[in-house]
Amino acid sequence: MEISKEALYEEFENYSYTVEYYSQESDSEETLHLGIIHWISLLLHVLAFVLGIPGNAIVIWFMGFKWKKTVTTLWFLNLAIADFVFVLFLPLYVSYMALNFHWPFGLWLCKANSFIAQLNMFSSVFFLTVISLDHYFRLIHPVLSHRHRTLKNSLGVVIFVWLSASLLGGPVLYFRDTVEVNNHIICYNNFQEHDPALTLVRHHVLTWVKFLFGYLFPLLTMSLCYLCLIFKAKKQNIPMSSKHFWTILSVVIAFMVCWTPYHLFSIWELSVYHNSSFHHVLQSGVPLSTGLAFLNSCLNPILYVLISKKFQAHFRASVAEVLKHSLWEVSCPGTVSEPLRSAGTKSLSPPETAQ
């Protein structure tokens, strides 16, 4: 059954711009433009998945299993876990885009996929805020930090962050829905009620909660921490590890650059209720800003490797260890190594025992 453009606008009054890609009547030039935007956005999502899986897995392996358990590694470990879980679900959204926004995975995966994206956004910015506060108190108030900065207290903060992120991201589990339009199943926010005013309020509340708690307040807190840290460190001649400082600061800046367009377009989206002339801008801006935001999940491991000499050293050591294992296996094939092992020969011991 064909649905008119006006009917689509009325049906999706809360706006799901995925519908507009294939439902709106457009001229050939505009269709080409939207097609280019679509493929660029798809490429950003694929890039986030391809780089995010191995990158975050390496960080989780180092900080969770190889490095000494400290408060700092605990923060970055959970940040990597949040990004890793998110990129695991990215193939669903990539498939959704590749199928011209047709969702064949059912209602519950529609809800779960959206919830994981919200959980990643809130937990990532919360952990970045915690890292910034921790860095500030550790350098400026060392006595207070030494007294309370323990693994036990840090685990409590980690649990609180995950619970808070789950609570703030939870509404999508209720509002996310699927509907069939022009033989396409759409996964979208269903704010529709019999009362249009209530629909508008729900959309506004969720958008502003996402912006305030998932972006503005954390960003202001992080900015204030680093400004105070810089001024007080210079005034009191407090030594700072430049590499560690720039590693944390670069992660915060990357989050800001990746997520700022997303939140701005989310707020701008609210204006469509009052002015439909922004449709064309949002058709291009929303998918691109979403792809850029998702790309943030693969940037942190890259920043660690580029900036942190400690991470570089551990990475090289681990790669060297893997190569030693591989070379030892190659140099001792099964026909030779098995008799040697059974005879208890110690002259050809594997790298782990030699170490």
From TrEMBL:
| Protein topology in the membrane | Multi-pass membrane protein
Asked if the Swiss-Prot or TrEMBL record annotates the protein with the keyword Disulfide bond, the reply is yes
TM segment ranges: 36-62, 74-94, 114-133, 154-174, 212-233, 245-265, 285-307
Q: Name one GO biological process term.
A: inflammatory response
Listed InterPro entries: CML2, Formyl_rcpt-rel, GPCR_Rhodpsn, GPCR_Rhodpsn_7TM
Subcellular localization, as worded in the UniProt entry: Cell membrane
Q: Which CDD domains match?
A: 7tmA_GPR1
Instruction: Please state which protein family the record places this protein in.
Output: Belongs to the chemokine-like receptor (CMKLR) family.
What PANTHER family does this protein's entry cite?
CHEMOKINE-LIKE RECEPTOR 1 (PTHR24225:SF74), CHEMOTACTIC RECEPTOR (PTHR24225)
Protein name per Swiss-Prot or TrEMBL:
Chemerin-like receptor 2
Q: What organism, scientifically named, is this protein from?
A: Peromyscus maniculatus bairdii (Prairie deer mouse)
Encoding gene per record: Cmklr2
